[in-house]
Design a protein that fits this description.
The protein has 372 residues and is mainly α. It has two domains: 124 residues, Zincin-like, CATH 3.30.2010; 236 residues, no CATH class. 54% of the residues lie in helices and 12% in strands. The protein has 14 helices and six strands. The chain has a three-stranded mixed beta sheet. A three-stranded antiparallel beta sheet has the order 4-6-5, sandwiched between helices. β2 and β3 form a beta hairpin. The longest helix is centred in the first third of the chain and has 27 residues. The chain is globular.
Amino acid sequence: MTTASEEKTRNQAELERRILHGLSCEWTNALWVLSFAQRQKMLPPLFALGDFQDLWGVWSRIKREIILSRRLVLNHSWDSVREVLLHETAHQFADEVLGAYGETPHGPQFQEACRLLRASPRGSGTYPPLDQRIEADAAHSEDKTLLRIRKLMALAESPNLHEAEAAMAKAQHLITKYNFQLLETRENRLFVTVSLGRPALRHPAEEYGLAHLLQEFYFVQGIWVSSYLLEKERMGRVLEVSGTLSNIQVASYVYDFVSRFIRSQWQEYNSGKNLNRLRQTDFALGIIEGFRSKLRSGNGAKDSSSALIRLKDPQLDQFFSYKYPRTVKIKGGRTRQDPRVLHDGKEVGRRLVISKGLESAVKSRKLQIAGG
């Protein structure tokens, strides 16, 4: 008979086995930015987990092994894990491809390896993990514009529909105004990249529609990238968005809020109807389109024309092109839609009001592999 302690030990061992397999898959995927000749010189290392107290990861030249902190992989987001993995992969590349044997650990060859692999030179050691940095910045942000946006979103919870609509419109107007001001200063901006939602082998059409909505109105750029699925033990895809920290916080919150709104409204709409998954997509796309039309109209903002302007940030474009040097566009097949369900979704979407605060946007990005 298996004891509870033995079962826990066995489950932990299985979890760590899957994580190590995920690190191997992510390592292979990370090499796609290199040239063919450079990839050929990178031989797969061993992977292990260690109980480090003051390090997130280590590259062992002698053992040819990348060791990540067990504390990191179990308590932080997969984005954070990948950041540290990429940092240690850059150490491997510097040693085995660029020949950085006589240099200091973070010398010129390592810096070049980070540039080629799009890795963070500070992604290990005592540097806080990505999710921890974002959460800390969100908690201590003194940006007056972001604070005003938070307050307006809180006002959007008002039971008075007119007041709620006006507060959301003002928040959206302020987001646009804030980004105008960023462009006018022409100062160098720091951009971050996070994944939204969970990786999957296939994503329904509404998730792509929501990604387009974020790009159109919330000043981020998105792309679907490979990401490890713990439960399937293979690579799937996930939406990654890049932007300034403030814009990432807002876009992340909107993504989560609209996703939850769609799920709750579909449950109510489909009660007693027993409609299939295709109709759920119709309804969800209708909500997104209805909400999009509401944002485009300005919804009562004093300067509603600002809602129609799609700002282009040259610095974000440059960052995005550097991070993703080779991208392709994939056209998905269209399925036949139910016009009635789509129309009903649009009507619901026109009533959608983004409310509450932004704090939960950060918290929702915690360890994505924990769902198992």
